[in-house]
Amino acid sequence: MTVGTPTTPEVQCMASRLEVKSLRDAPGFLIASLALWRQARRSPGALGVTLKAQLSKRTFWTYSAWENKASIYAYAGAEPHKSTVERKRKVMRDATFVFFTAPADELPLPWDEIQRRIAEQRASTPPDPTH
Q1: Before 80, cis peptide (omega within 30)?
Q2: Is the separation of the CB atoms in 72 and 12 below 8 Å?
Q3: pTM of the model
Q4: Taking a C-beta distance cutoff of 8 angstroms, is the pair 113, 41 a contact?
Q5: What is the pLDDT along the chain (131 residues), one digit of tens a residue?
Q6: Which residues contact 56 (CB under 8 A, 6 or more apart)?
Q7: Cβ count within 10 A of residue 63
Q8: 74: exposed, middle or buried (Cβ count in 10 Å: 0-12, 13-18, 19+)
């Protein structure tokens, strides 16, 4: 993750773990994820964006740092993110999102820290009965 220059001592971060239902869905999900990664990198307020794909496990991880939450929500509500999320929802088995602040001078956080935060969130969230 290349980190832009933060203007505040703390930044807003978002991390996700996304799992598709089938190995057959993984390549298309990766292509869509790369398009959204490019969009996020160009979005106002983005300081850094990274994507990790584990195709054989059907799992995708994202981690991004932003100037503020408003920047994250603006990106999420903009195209192509908005329509891609709607379109890809049908191939999703599971999704976990974590929002947190981090000291700007500690960016980027290591993947093991990101995965720890996501695991904590997953452990504290009851299973979705619709899956």
Answers
A1: yes
A2: yes
A3: 0.89
A4: no
A5: 666 788 899 999 999 999 999 999 999 999 999 999 999 999 999 999 999 999 999 999 999 999 999 999 999 999 999 999 999 999 999 999 999 999 999 999 999 999 999 999 999 987 654 45
A6: 23
A7: 24
A8: middle
